[in-house]
Amino acid sequence: MNYDLSQEQQMLKDAAHRFLVKECPSTFVRQMAEEESGHNPELWKKMADLGWTGLIFPSEYEGSEASFLDLAVLLYEMGYVCLPGPFLATMEGGLTVLEAGNDFQKKDYLPKVASGEKLMTLAWTEQEGSYAIATRAEFQDTHYLLTGTKLFVPDAHLADTLICVARTKQDGAEEIGLFLVDGKALGVKIKVLPTLSGEKLCEVTFDQVHIPKENRLGRPGQVGAVLDKIFHMAAVAKCAEMCGGAQRVIELVMVQAKERVQFGHPIGSFQAVQHHCANILTFADTSRFMTFQAAWKISQGLDFEKEAAMCKAWVSESHRRLVALAHQVMGGMGFMEEHDLQLYFKRAKTAELAFGDADFHREQVAQKMGL
Amino acid sequence: MDFDFTKEEKELIAEVRAFIDKEATPELLAETRQLGLIYGGPEGRKFIKKFASHGWLTPNWPKEYGGLGTSEMVTYLIREEMAYSGLPCIFVGAHMAGPAILRIGSPEMKKEFLTPLAKGEIEFALGYTEPQAGSDLVAMKVRADDQGDHFLVNGQKTFNTHCHVADYHWLAARTDPEAPKHKGISMMIVDLKSPGITIRPLITMAGWRTNEVYYDNVKVPKKNLVGEINKGFYYMMSALDFERMAPPGVYRNLFDEIVHYAKSTQAGGKPLSQNPLIRQKLAQMAIELDVARLLYYQLAYILDKGSIPNYQSSMEKLFVTELSQHITETGMEVLGLYGLLKEGSEWTPLAGKVEHFHRWSVVETIYAGTSEIQRSIIAQRGLGLPRQ
Ligand SMILES: Cc1cc2nc3c(=O)[nH]c(=O)nc-3n(C[C@H](O)[C@H](O)[C@H](O)COP(=O)(O)OP(=O)(O)OC[C@H]3O[C@@H](n4cnc5c(N)ncnc54)[C@H](O)[C@@H]3O)c2cc1C
């Protein structure tokens, strides 16, 4: 066992920390939450120049072949500052192409994702708010016709390419397929939904969208496994963001606990407050271990779905409770828009509900336990 | 990062497992459970000598004192395996007093105690708590007066588990009544057969025994003073850090049995494990057990790096003991009314373990420092919050 980051990971972390603290102050987070685009192309370009958009892709696609664990380290720092924008959505799209794409598709898409030129997203969740796919792609000899409405698609309004999960027929049998859809294609309508945290989740309507046959992604029969993998990876990625957020929350709370004086003492000397803080630290430490364990498993090419589900279930709940305790320690001040704690409160709920909440993932764990 | 064990560690633990499979007789397991997971009965003593002859009781100790000079990780793995297997797994000598002697004992003391401890020939009992000094250990009053070549000890200890089966008392006593409270305490090793010691049983609501111990003019030779005089409080605190490294194995085992029960027991024509609520609860426990595992092995990792865990041992103690209670509660919920049945009825599931551990787990968050004390330590040492 080894609980420490490698030297390279520590360097990546430190560099990312310095960069993000400078480039993404909380004023910027607030501004992006209010703007409809929620995206700053200049910052994106700088991140791409640092190699972040290509971090985990193989070198043949102009990536730098880093591991998923390295990506988790980077996401941790992004979560620390509540970085807005399409980074995670684009990575999910890229990873899906990497997992499911044929040679041509990979060569076509991945170098552009790696260089930061192309933004992507996964259009997955249906109107029911579930992953029971209803959107349909009808095969018409040379192309598919895609029809349906997806909700909660992250950053679809920015994406050059959406990967749509849709039901189709293959040799007469019902199947789930993945389709690369141009964000500007005729019949694609995108609306940004107003959300709790100002993160951009969209409604995407596909109305008889014409998808060339070559844009189908993944071999028939394999898509389920690919999606399962991507889903669990995305869940761990969200956890990494939450862990970084937790670190920042602790720092915010510690300032208050040590400096705020009531009844003649710093509030951090009161036992009730100390015990809240001890619980906060316990949630933070355990979340980090679970996240890095799952990320490590992914990096090693080991089976990771069970650890990922355990991780998302644990971190989703722990993080919510951590933030709630932080508010308790902070008192009224933390409830004000001008204090940064509220940004983390909003992010926490968004992350908790993304890619399956704790109940959802406990059921996954139950299945993996053979219950 | 690396969340797996090395090949050597896996090989060693396989060897230990094979040994345990062969040697853990039903008699030994029954005796251990009856004694409260401590050793001291005839079967336990026989077993532990054989086990320790491989160096497995104290693998991380240096070879000259009967250890194998291995990593802490190996030690932690073995302890977890013992706990999981239902064997005696609470060793005051090997895991709490011994490490302190290794670090602060005189050469003579090391020679006298360490090898017999490593061989499983002798055992210690912890002697900290007194009627008025529980969480507030510095309030202790048992006195040890300097009489030239020996101390004369008088007073009362309470909740001193193991004393009725152990050979030595790891005793904290006041050697300087004038000094500030935490500067007048010393640690000493007392032969429990010394004249003047009376041990009275205190039976817990789980049926397991702890003791009251009375000292009436008990002579303790000076050579049995541990480390320096009046520094006992600091030694006690660091020994407590070692006490607070609880392997989750006992409850991991109980959990596995509960899962097995849920899968194999029908209710309303379906296995209990198909009930969505039960699935949620069992999955949650599996997750918490994994968290506990990571906290537990983190301690070994820190020790192997050459540091002493700080707030992390309190966090592990807190987490594992609260988990113990979650697991027995979950067990009760899965078993329903059957959970009330004690060992001995033909209707009793899982040999009454759920019922028994449900009673026992209450104390997990109290002894070795209550959860409140652990949380204060985490806040003060882990986050630097001020004391009042
Ligand atoms: C079964 C069993 C076995 C034991 N084995 C041993 C043993 O082998 N050797 C040994 O020396 N001792 C042993 N103990 C003693 C054990 O360590 C003490 O019981 C424990 O430390 C708590 O002390 P107390 O019972 O006096 O409770 P108290 O200290 O009276 O505590 C009562 C309550 O007050 C709270 N409290 C006290 N002080 C504070 C504070 N500063 N801040 C916040 N809350 C506080 C506690 O958390 C608790 O909720 C054992 C106890 C039991 C029950």
| Biggest beta sheet summary of chain B | 4 strands, mixed
Number of strands of chain B: 10
Which structural class is indicated by helix and strand composition of chain A?
alpha+beta
Helix tally of chain A equals 11
What global shape of chain A is seen? globular
Which strand order does the major sheet of chain B show? 1-4-5-8
Q: Note the main sheet of chain A.
A: 4 strands, mixed
Percent of residues in β-strands of chain B: 5-15%
Brief digest:
With 371 residues, chain A is an alpha+beta fold. Helices cover 51% and strands 17% of the residues of chain A.
SSE inventory with pairings:
The complex is a heterodimer of chains A (371) and B (388).
Chain A: H1 7-23, H2 26-34, H3 41-49, H4 68-80, H5 87-100, H6 103-115, E1 120-123, E2 136-139, E3 143-154, E4 161-170, E5 173-182, E6 188-193, E7 201-212, E8 216-217, H7 223-259, E9 261-262, E10 265-266, H8 271-299, H9 305-330, H10 341-353, H11 358-368
Parallel strand pairs in A: 1-4
Antiparallel strand pairs in A: 2-3, 3-7, 4-5, 5-8, 6-7, 9-10
Chain B: H1 7-23, H2 26-35, H3 42-52, H4 72-84, H5 92-104, H6 107-118, E1 124-127, E2 143-146, E3 150-157, E4 168-174, E5 185-191, E6 197-203, E7 209-221, E8 225-226, H7 232-243, H8 249-264, E9 266-267, E10 270-271, H9 276-304, H10 311-335, H11 353-364, H12 371-383
Parallel strand pairs in B: 1-4
Antiparallel strand pairs in B: 2-3, 3-7, 4-5, 5-8, 6-7, 9-10
Flavin-adenine dinucleotide binds at residues 126-129, 134-136, 159-161, 204, 210, 363, 366-370, 372-373, 376 of chain B.
Question: What does this molecule look like?
Answer:
The complex is a heterodimer of chains A (371) and B (388). Chain A is an alpha+beta fold. Chain A has helices spanning 7-23, 26-34, 41-49, 68-80, 87-100, 103-115, 223-259, 271-299, 305-330, 341-353, 358-368, and strands at 120-123, 136-139, 143-154, 161-170, 173-182, 188-193, 201-212, 216-217, 261-262, 265-266. Chain A has a four-stranded mixed beta sheet with strand order 1-4-5-8, covered by helices on one side. In chain A, a hairpin with a 2-residue loop joins strand 9 and strand 10 (265-266). In chain A, helix 5 packs antiparallel against helix 6 and helix 5 packs antiparallel against helix 7 (223-259). Chain A starts with 6 loop residues before the first helix and ends with a helix. In chain B, the strands form three sheets. A four-stranded mixed beta sheet of chain B has the order 1-4-5-8. In chain B, helix 4 (72-84) packs antiparallel against helix 9. At the A-B interface, helix 7, strand 10, helix 8, helix 9 and helix 11 of A face helix 8, helix 9, helix 10 and helix 12 of B. Flavin-adenine dinucleotide (FAD) binds at residues 126-129, 134-136, 159-161, 204, 210, 363, 366-370, 372-373, 376 of chain B.
